[in-house]
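Reply to dn_fold:

You asked what the input looked like. This is it:
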Amino acid sequence: MVVTSLTASTTFTFLMIRTIFLRIGLSFITMPLNTAGLNVLQKDLINHGTAVNNTVRQIAGAIGTAVVITIYSSKSTLYAGNLAAQGVTENIKSLTSIFAASKAYYFMTILAVLALVLTFLTPLKKPTPVIKQIEDLEY
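and this is what came back:
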């Protein structure tokens, strides 16, 4: 996989381009998911739904960052121990960083796939009949 295959020869330009495409793809997933989620709500609940959506997004972002950093740190420590036990002394820091980042990207890829699945499971808002819309305008 292009997303998770990191090696010692991976260039910074490749990492940057890959990250840009990942972020654009994430936007294409989250924007329709947020819109579909808020469209299901009644008009008087949209303000509350937006507040809950923003709060949950901030909390989930903080938790997700902590989880990814934990995965990276634990795998980096594990790989450093394994490489030292194998007698590798050159470039241990860069090799462990590459291996740990690869595992962190695997985790983020799994989360992105789950988010994509959620977009297909989100209920669609049923159209309101025109008569109901006119009655709402009269009051």
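Residues 46-85 form the longest helix (40 residues).
Hope that clears it up.
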